[in-house]
Amino acid sequence: MLAQAVEHLIKNIVDFPDDVSVKSHENSRGELLRVRVNPEDIGRVIGRGGRTANAIRTVVQALSDHKVRVDIMDVRR
To answer: Where is this gene product found (predicted)?
Structure first.
């Protein structure tokens, strides 16, 4: 559910929504959401001073009942 919510949120921010993918991984530290976006959209998703990325992380923590990390990457990696 969290991965779908993050994907929906980010697809509405970027210029290339078809390049957005969110994958969820469980590890010992909790859940990890890996967000991949087009390299041209990475600045838009992170935002000035990381404000947009922090806002996304805040929304995810509000929706979740456990520890969740959100990593934002471009599709080249």
So the answer is: Cytoplasm
Chain center to CA of 2: 10
pTM: 0.85
Q: Where are the beta strands (DSSP E) in 16-67?
A: 21-27, 30-37
- Residue 19's alpha-carbon distances to 22, 27, 50, 74, in angstroms, are 10, 25, 21, 9
Q: Where are the beta strands (DSSP E) in the chain?
A: 21-27, 30-37, 68-74
Q: Tally the residues of the chain.
A: 77
Contact assessment for residue 74 and residue 38, using Cβ atoms and an 8 Å cutoff: yes
What is the per-residue pLDDT across 5-45, written as a single tens digit (0 to 9) for each?
A: 999 999 999 999 999 999 999 988 889 999 999 999 999 99
